[in-house]
Amino acid sequence: xxxxxxxxxxxxxxxxxxxxxxxxxxxxxxxxxxxxxxxxxxxxxxxxxxxxxxxxxxxxxxxxxxxxxxxxxxxxxxxxxxxxxxxxxxxxxxxxxxxxxxxxxxxxxxxxxxxxxxxxxxxxxxxxxxxxxxxxxxxxxxxxxxxxxxxxxxxxxxxxxxxxxxxxxxxxxxxxxxxxxxxxxxxxxxxxxxxxxxxxxxxxxxxxxxxxxxxxxxxxxxxxxxxxxxxxxxxxxxxxxxxxxxxxxxxxxxxxxxxxxxxxxxxxxxxxxxxxxxxxxxxxxxxxxxxxxxxxxxxxxxxxxxxxxxxxxxx
Length: 315
Fold this sequence. Notes:
The protein is an alpha/beta fold. Helix content is 44%, strand content 12%.
């Protein structure tokens, strides 16, 4: 077992080294479908992975709007990037849990930028550190990570600019929210089947599953519900995000060519940020990389997929 773990750690290290090298190669002119007029919105962009995603996108020449719940923190973060020479960075207050904040942001975005081309849903919370698995904050975790992300997507879809390259949505998710991962697998077979069947999966069904989980948390029966065993509330929230990504991809695929929106989710890995109590093993640059890579893919017919380290992985 230990040997296998070592091997997979070595493979991942090697992969991250390859990616670091790939990051040093600039995109060629014919690959760059974007320009300074291309607008990327990053939620929770004031620190950690969100800040690094904002930095990398701005360095590639996009206009970036980083949002944060606390406006003064957002302004400071944008200033850091501007002082580093990335002038096309703005910040705006946004609480993805507050419908009026989302609405106000959407109006401001429309008025000042005419919409957006790229949306990175990074804002999220987790109240457990290390091997803790309390579900005390389950409602808040689900509300933020799943419902908040959903609110944001719904508010932004009408503002996504039509283009030949297609608009892009990237959801920051987690391997912990996989249906069939070796670790943290869902033991409830009926649930796994419902979430696996993309033909019959709907947003309403995902909402229902999430409500069932919260109901079980309230009446204390969640431990026997067959839910993921590690960081349960966080994992269920990311499971829902992954499922919703697939549902939307299917919906978007029916849009006419010039109104295409491509949506994918990815796992940044266990990154050294405030969210992991700085206990992560992956540098923030590596954690942000796949989001930026997905947002900028030149041949973007990829949608409804789940990625880690620039490779597709199973849901």
